[in-house]
Each structure stands twice: as structure tokens, then as C-alpha cells.
Amino acid sequence: MTMDPVDQVVADWARQRPDLDASPIAVFGRVRRIADLAAGGLRGYLAPYGLTPGEFDILCNLRRAGRPYRKTPSELAASALVTSGALTGRLDALERDGLIRRRDHRADRRVSYAELTAAGRKLIDRVLEGHLAREEALLASLGEADRKDIERALALLEHAVREAGPER
């Protein structure tokens, strides 16, 4: 196998700073690279549908909620890990496109919901099917055992990073 850009970075550091262990770059550099490539592919896939990845995430979030396909903005912000300002902009765009509607709680006017419209549900069902088919195609060269090993290793890495905290 030829050296890829991540391998090259690790090799360069080994030559330039042999006193340092640059091996973590082999893991984190590869994870970043895969994330960047996947994000670019997702943006390209969603563009013809007029969606951004953030809007796609909200539509998926509402669809996964089950009938009546609604959540409060706070629930959406928590699961999307975005600020309320970023969420508001995404909700505005989705509402403008007729994919969601905002509803007030019947008994408590302080509570509102974002809810999928019929058009939003139809679109997210179609887009999600294509998205999952794309991701499956990207994984097609891996056997089931390799996929499970990667899932397990990534879960362990995610846990270790979360446990280390944001300052690390």
C-alpha cells in the first residue's frame, strides 16, 4: 500500500522530530480526514435537494422522533449540539421552504415545537434513503467483521476523548 497524506505527515515528523511520538496523528489525522471527506460528500449530495447538513440533521431529528414528528427547539439544539442562534436560522430556512412548521403548546404558551410538514416528511424519507445507500456504498469494500471492528474502535476512541474533557 502506498503512503497516503496521513502516513506522510507521520513519516515527516519522524524525520524532523525523532524525539516525538507522532503516532497519534495516524489516528486523529485519519479521523479528521474521513470526517472532512464525508462532510464534503454529504454537502454535495444534499445540495440538489436545497438542504444543508444542519438542516438535514434537523429533519432527521424530527423524523426519528416519530409521530407527530415534533420537538422543542431546546430538544433539537441539545441533540444537534448547536447554539440557539444557529438553530433558529436553520428552523427559519426549513419553515420558509415549507418543510417544518412551528406550533405553540396548547396549554403553555412559553413552549413551542418544530414539526415536520407532510412535504418535510416526504423529502426526508427520500433524502435519507439515498444518503444511507451512499454510506453503504462507501463501506461496501469492508467485510462485516471489519465494520464491527471499526465501530468498536471508534466507540472506544470517542469515549476516551469524551472522558479526557475539552481541555485535553
Automatic annotation (TrEMBL):
<keyword id="KW-0805">Transcription regulation</keyword>
<dbReference type="InterPro" id="IPR036390">
    <property type="entry name" value="WH_DNA-bd_sf"/>
</dbReference>
<feature type="domain" description="HTH marR-type">
    <location>
        <begin position="24"/>
        <end position="162"/>
    </location>
</feature>
<dbReference type="InterPro" id="IPR039422">
    <property type="entry name" value="MarR/SlyA-like"/>
</dbReference>
<dbReference type="GO" id="GO:0006950">
    <property type="term" value="P:response to stress"/>
</dbReference>
<protein>
    <submittedName>
        <fullName>MarR family transcriptional regulator</fullName>
    </submittedName>
</protein>
<dbReference type="InterPro" id="IPR036388">
    <property type="entry name" value="WH-like_DNA-bd_sf"/>
</dbReference>
<keyword id="KW-0804">Transcription</keyword>
<dbReference type="GO" id="GO:0003677">
    <property type="term" value="F:DNA binding"/>
</dbReference>
<dbReference type="Pfam" id="PF01047">
    <property type="entry name" value="MarR"/>
</dbReference>
<dbReference type="GO" id="GO:0003700">
    <property type="term" value="F:DNA-binding transcription factor activity"/>
</dbReference>
<dbReference type="InterPro" id="IPR000835">
    <property type="entry name" value="HTH_MarR-typ"/>
</dbReference>
<dbReference type="InterPro" id="IPR023187">
    <property type="entry name" value="Tscrpt_reg_MarR-type_CS"/>
</dbReference>
<keyword id="KW-0238">DNA-binding</keyword>
